[in-house]
Model the fold of this input.
Amino acid sequence: MDKISYPVKGSCRCGKLEITLAAPPVLTAACHCRGCQKMSSSAFSLTAMCKSDSFRVVRGTPVKGGAQGPELDHFFCPDCKTWMFTRITGMDDFVNVRPTLFDQKSLATPFIETMTSEKLPWVSIPAQHSFTGFPDVDDFMKLLDDFRQTQDQQGSRRG
Ligand SMILES: [Zn+2]
Ligand SMILES: [Zn+2]
Done:
């Protein structure tokens, strides 16, 4: 994986909505829950959990869609309806961005997978940590540490 230089750019399918990310994600994940299967029209969703202050919509105005509130809001391109990012109520410091929108493919590599209890039987992905549900708070803090170390190693290997 090449070392990424920030900020990175991303866009929806039609290109009318553009986003930037100024700092590395704090965690990447795949979610196998039924909701993500339906919203992505695919086997699982991909997430890069990012610090809110590092993430910006720089072009276009996203609209809410999918399952709306109260615990989370999903945002889409108003034109092509690409699922762009998700904000979880009470976790205002973070935003869950769909990492396949970014130009850098390596941002989409899932470090953990969640909700494997609802996983499609043929799916197997190289996530380093698996959860049948979602990680609890203690697990979550450890995962952030582990993920940061993985990122640091990738950076230093390249000198
Ligand atoms: Zn679009
Ligand atoms: Zn899910």
Notes: The chain has a mean pLDDT of 93. The pocket of zinc ion (ligand 1) is lined by residues 12-14, 16-17, 77, 79-80, 82 (CB under 6 Å).
